[in-house]
UniProtKB/TrEMBL annotation:
PANTHER family, sorted: TRANSAMINASE, UDP-2-ACETAMIDO-2-DEOXY-3-OXO-D-GLUCURONATE AMINOTRANSFERASE
Official protein name in the record: DegT/DnrJ/EryC1/StrS family aminotransferase
Record has Transferase as a keyword: yes
Coiled-coil ranges (or none): none
Keyword annotations of the record: Aminotransferase, Pyridoxal phosphate, Transferase
Family note: Belongs to the DegT/DnrJ/EryC1 family.
Gene Ontology molecular function, alphabetical: transaminase activity
Species per Swiss-Prot/TrEMBL record: Candidatus Kirkpatrickella diaphorinae
Matches recorded under Pfam families: DegT_DnrJ_EryC1 (PF01041)
InterPro entries: DegT/StrS_aminotransferase, PyrdxlP-dep_Trfase, PyrdxlP-dep_Trfase_major, PyrdxlP-dep_Trfase_small
Taxonomic superkingdom: Bacteria
Amino acid sequence: MTQRREIAFLDLPRQRARLGEALTRRVDAVMAHCKFVLGPEVTELEERLAAYAGARHAIGVSSGTDALLAVLMGEGIGPGDAVFLPAFTYTATAEIVLLLGAVPVFVDVDARTFQIDPAHLEARIAATLRDGQWRPRAIIGVDLFGQPAPWDELKIIADRHKLTLVDDCAQAFGGSYKGRKLGREARATTLSFFPSKPLGGYGDGGAILTDDEGLASLYRSLRSHGEGQNRYDVQRIGLNARLDTLQAAVLLAKLDAFDAELARREAIARAYDAGLPEIIQTPQRVAGAQSAWAIYSILLPTMALRDSLQSWLKAHGIPSVVYYPKPLHRQPAYASYHNNEIPLPVSEKLGEIILSLPLHPELTDDEVRYIIDTTLEWSKERKT
Ligand SMILES: *Cc1c(COP(=O)(O)O)cnc(C)c1O
């Protein structure tokens, strides 16, 4: 039996210590100039983010949720409209649709990659068109857990039905699809800098990436109360959804370390892939993709085994999380927007058998070894 350790699921104190002076200098600079709203760090970060993703424009906003909200507002989506999105995602993807008075149409996901299932998406669009109550307007593809959604297929479907394609890239900035960094697969790509995301700030934050100049200025207007030429020229209804200068300063320091962090995440994922016991199904890589490894999700054969492994890990000081125990269409807030005669079997099943292990750049090799060894002990114990 190996020596017991206490593992962190997300280790912000260690991260803060690693980033050290570089981060302090950035924050101190803001404290010196006191341009706390849309200060120079926001512009600098926007330029760096756009360059990183190869996108023409980046617009800093207050969160990943507000980024999605601004993008749908920019499309004029509202009452009578239907927006297609995966049932197996975080609530933010769907809640903004309802905030605008439109309805979410939940689509099932692939059992191995956990990404939206294009065949089911087609079926849901066809059924919505037949039904005639809602007008299909947009598809939100989610790059779940750090891997890309099937963008080539989504583009074909969006073109065929003249739907706006949006990339909810909250979990996957830094990842790539067919050799391209994520950020250009859709009309607009939304990012989140929530502390647990691969590029996480020290508070809330987000951004929108787009190649379209008109959209970029529309998003800049929407994030600042719909302003036009100046603050007191109100062109449209907007939001108070700007990215804080302080968060931009933190993110600039973090961006300098980002590629090294992504490489560390990949190395840990590979160690898990190679070391976990047979009974555990490790994540399937999306073909031609590089994951940003926001989350490393494994599958167990049954719910009882998943729960058994989770308790065993907990007893050994290893936290794990179930993303997501309940698909959105089963949540009280969304249940009335889904017809229960339409099964979403994969999304429903995944919540029973999925489990996410700690994966972040602060984990040491010894800690990764300890997590792997503890799962091996669990698997042996189970057999005896
Ligand atoms: C985190 C997340 C969001 C929302 O981002 P916030 O910055 O927390 O508002 C949206 N979509 C997905 C898939 C997410 O994981």
